[in-house]
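# step 3/5: fold
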Amino acid sequence: MLTSANQLQSLLTTKMATVSVPACTSALLLDIEGTTTPITFVKDILFPYIREHLEEYLSNHWEEDECKQDVHLLKKQIEEDMRQNRSCPVHFVDQTVHTDEEKAIREVMDNVLWQMAADRKSTALKQLQGHMWRAAYSSGRIKGELYQDVTPSIRRWRGHGLKVFIYSSGSVEAQKLLFGYSVEGDVLDLLDGHFDTSIGAKVECKSYERIAERIGCQPEEITFLTDVTREAKAAEEAGMNVVVVVRSGNMDLTDDERAHYNLVTSFSMLELTGRV
């Protein structure tokens, strides 16, 4: 197996041919982490922000309806984890009966940090994170990072009549914050819609079928771009056209995966066939 750096260099030197988007394509569906945005932005900026400011955020917003709703979703997730016999370091969290607010906040913190350490993709976790990031983006403490080829390519696609959607494990709100407060300013007008795990897990075929239905087209009319081959496989099984994005720092690909999928190192390598 090649390293990510070697894979990238190999593609740059020996496989720089463009990848044709099928003429039947009417929409492009984009992953975020490792596809539109460096993995390092998520791991080195967004996630550390949650860990460092979680207690402060919960303490300041504990009595607000939005925070109560977030805690309620986390409580339901804990109940589900207990039913599934998953490891969980906290007890049953019920905000309505706790008399010790600090204890209740600590229990929520323990669960959130446990989920993050386990790289969980639960909707409850992503919703709370999205609300915390909103304050950071709006205050200017965080700006969403995008690869340099992303916005010019999306503009080109839209100029050819294609719609562009996002599908990420991050909440829809978190997605909109990243593109709304990006290093290039507010680029939300380039996107036609957003999907998160509330429509289904990214490694499940049914999720992509639901997305196609929601968009209003057949799966084969959608081209999905992602750096994760498990997601690519699920989308492919749903009938979508798939392109795997190879960026520096992304997960290694096996030789079989490199042979099976169309690979690009930049969105600019996508060629729109049959369009003027």
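# step 4/5: annotate
The CA atoms of residues 50 and 129 lie 7 Å apart.
# step 5/5: archive (pending)
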